[in-house]
Amino acid sequence: MEPIISTPYYLYEEKIILEQINKIANAKILKKNIHFSLMSNNNICLLNILKESGLGVFTSSVQELAIAKKAGFDNKKIIFCSSNLKIDEIKEVINVNPVIIADSFNQLNKYLENGSLKEIGIRISFEPEFYRKNNFLEIQRQGIEVDQLGQAIELCERHGVKIVGIHSYFGTNNSNEEFFKTGLSKLIDVSTQFKDLEFIDGSGGFGLDYSNEKFNFNLNELVRSFNDVLSGYPQLSGSIELKIEPGRFIMGPAGKLICTVTEVYEKQGRIFIGVDTNLSQFPRPYIYGEYHRIEVYKRIKKDKLKRPHTFIVGNSIKSDDFFAINIDFPKVEEGDQLCFNYAGAYCYSLSSNFCGQLRPAEYLLSENNEYSEIRTPESFSTLIKTQNPRSPGQ
Ligand SMILES: Cc1ncc(COP(=O)(O)O)c(C=O)c1O
Asked: Nearest C-alpha to atom 4 of ligand 1 is from which residue?
């Protein structure tokens, strides 16, 4: 039985998380080589489900690294790659000892100068034309350029450090398989320069179609093409593993945000449905202009009537706090509950306190149909606990 939970709240379904993992494993990517990207969702209870399924994690800050450790991941299961780190952070990362990927030539130097590493991975970027052709950021601020690889190898050799992994990033929410395939084959091409290589990391970014709740990316095809290209390099095949770092694909479909209708009104021939959540708590529609499919979750009266020209809007003061614009939507009334689908990734993790809003609770529906609160809602003290108000006399 579903308990009565006050809205808004995020709800994650364990069954869907496991189904998403199995889809990747069925594409013949080893579970141990799937590193869930913590930036998409860092809830420790959800991370535990992934850990128990054999997955690793990808972390992008020292705070995410600490969360991964708190969730109990083994160092070898944690990939760490971050930008513009301070020396103290570099030392901290070396001390924790995850699988480190240096994201620039400069950063590689800092890792080598500030600790006693045995091995490291490097992030590589390719020529601007490659990204431009694929409508991705032509200015790649991260990554070591291909013509600097010789220098990077020499530098690591001088420090007695093995380069065991190469990594590159081909976009986020991207459904362009060719881009990934060409990118991976470029990585395989340069990989012959590295004598101690153990893995090639194609990172994450596999795209979801939010409004139709589909996944168009062909993972099987990506793995097939990786193995095909690799088989052209007999000295590499057999010894190199493909790693990936998906966040959105695993957690996006597993989460919903549930909210309550607080107002229904008509204005200028349109129907406005106001809800008790907003762009601070559920930010993707505002940030990316994305429509997450909305359904009636619970209703007081049964009423099948669909009404056109419906707008579903948030409870912040921002005039562009829209969740749906001009859709056909069932007739609802105050007190009914709605849910936003595909809200498991980059929703809670992107939420904020903008307009004094508090982050909602997170709940898990386990495989055996039990509900549990896995993060409590924020309270007013969250907003003020880091403030140092000056007294009037100062
Ligand atoms: C290096 C890296 N790996 C993995 C990811 C995760 O991407 P996604 O959640 O879209 O799969 C990102 C996202 O920006 C990234 O920058």
From this structure: 204
